[in-house]
Prior knowledge:
The protein is an alpha+beta fold and about 200 residues long. Helix content is about 40%, strand content about 25%.
Amino acid sequence: MTRRRSSAIRCAALLGLLAFCSSSLAVDRETMLEEANLLILPRERQLPDVELINEQGQTVTTEGLRDHWYLLFFGFTACPDVCPTTLSDMRRLLGQLPPDLREQVQVVLISADPARDTPEALRTYLGYYRANFKGLTGEIPELQKMSKALGLPFVAATSMEGDYNVSHSSNLAIVGPNGTLRGHIRAPLKLDGLLQFLPQLIEAK
Length: 205
């Protein structure tokens, strides 16, 4: 066998291996989406600099979204259905993860209704779930900037009178330990599938 032919065979084998790996990854992504409504982006996305206020009244920035896996979603404390369901489901999901993995995940509610969602209101509301959930609020322009970056749209209320509602996405954004957007958990939440695939994502870093 000539050296040129041997080199060509090795090259073909390597290309075949790469094609197989890419195909396997595509299958995994499709399976995640089908069984867990878990959508992984083909490329990580950097988040812009955004300044918000946490449930303790402290100023925080997107630079602080590091060293954990963050599951973030937009909602509001007066939400009648979607937000309580999402938080209850997240509590169930985290409660079923192994302790070492559970410690790596932080659920964060970002307010789409800052007029009512003061840090104290967020702290009280999230405390009902006894799951160490965190909250963020702030000025509308900063919240909308964050919303756009995470791909989680909401429509700010135009009237603050009465028992008004706020329209917002039901999905959750996944931010990795390096502070980049990795994907989304789409509604409706499929807890069995998430319990299977979320640990794989966390362990893969």
